[in-house]
Write a structure and sequence with these properties.
281 residues; OB fold (Dihydrolipoamide Acetyltransferase, E2P); BirA Bifunctional Protein, domain 2; five-stranded mixed barrel; alpha+beta
Length: 281
């Protein structure tokens, strides 16, 4: 690795250590010939102090750099309690530009003060994903899938991947079709759900199957419909509806507890399908 530490992991106990960081220039401030750089990587941000004007002069927002230096405590009164690394700064003795950045189509850091339309964000998604709130969303999703797999394994479920290329099946939406190169005029369909495959797995005696499945539906996009999405897909044999409800309730309670620190009271209030339709349509 070309770095010794992640920027967001430095703390007061690292004071006096020589470290090498690598990441992107999030912000730059100049005071009396000294440049202060907020260096961002996937773990967070650390402040870097560059006293060499020649080394600091070319640095701009989103330049990718490697910095070597010594961790020091920030001067009294300069600590930033809003940052996990706010008690320290890195006094740089070596700065290397790994990759320069062209002019940005929108600000990455100060995005809350500058409105950016969704089309621009999607066009430059690689920049949009550098934003802290987007990184948190991606990490949250990864944590959700990790916990799902842990819970399902604790209940002896088997994680089985089902095919993406299959026959067209009658479900509630249109299929996405994929032409077969070696059989002109023939088509595969992308699955709207793994419904048939998981039922075959039950016939095969797998008994407890789950999958974080990718589903494809050729529908017009709206708030609750997208052409592709992921879902937790579950099938089990020799069970009652109450068994399925208890499994999912336990999973939801685990997710809320571990990710949000909130205890969900179980059992979750339930209603019949007929009641739900009568009350909410």
């Amino acid at each position: 690795m070309i770095r010794t530490h992640d920027a967001g992991t430095l703390r007061a106990q690292h004071v006096g250590q020589t470290v090498t960081l690598a990441g992107w220039v999030a912000r730059r401030r100049d005071h009396g010939g000294v440049a202060f750089i907020d260096l961002r990587d996937g773990s967070g941000v650390s402040q870097v102090v560059i006293r060499d004007e020649e080394a600091a002069r070319p640095l701009r927002s989103e330049f990718c750099v490697r910095v070597a230096g010594e961790v020091a405590a920030r001067p009294a009164g300069n600590a930033n309690v809003a940052l996990p690394t706010g008690e320290i700064e890195v006094i740089a003795n070596e700065v290397e530009v790994l990759s320069e950045s062209a002019a940005l189509p929108f600000p990455v850091e100060e995005h809350h003060t500058t409105a950016v339309n969704e089309e621009t964000r999607l066009k430059y998604r690689y920049l949009d994903l550098r934003r802290s709130d987007m990184r948190k969303n991606v990490r949250m999703r990864a944590d959700v899938t990790r916990i799902i797999r842990q819970v399902m394994a604790e209940h002896d479920f088997i994680d089985i991947e089902t095919p993406y290329l299959t026959r067209s099946t009658p479900e509630g939406a249109r299929d996405f079709l994929v032409p077969v190169r070696l059989q002109p005029g023939s088509w595969y369909a992308l699955p709207q759900s793994p419904q048939l495959f998981k039922q075959l797995l039950m016939v095969a005696g797998m008994e407890r199957y789950f999958q974080i499945a990718r589903c494809f539906r050729d529908e017009d996009s709206r708030a609750d419909r997208q052409p592709e999405f992921s879902q937790l897909d579950v099938e089990l044999s020799f069970c009652t509806p109450e068994d399925v409800q208890a499994l999912i309730e336990g999973l939801l309670a685990r997710l809320w507890r571990e990710l949000l620190g909130h205890e969900v009271t179980l059992p979750i209030p339930r209603m019949t399908y007929a009641e739900a339709m009568r009350r909410f349509g």
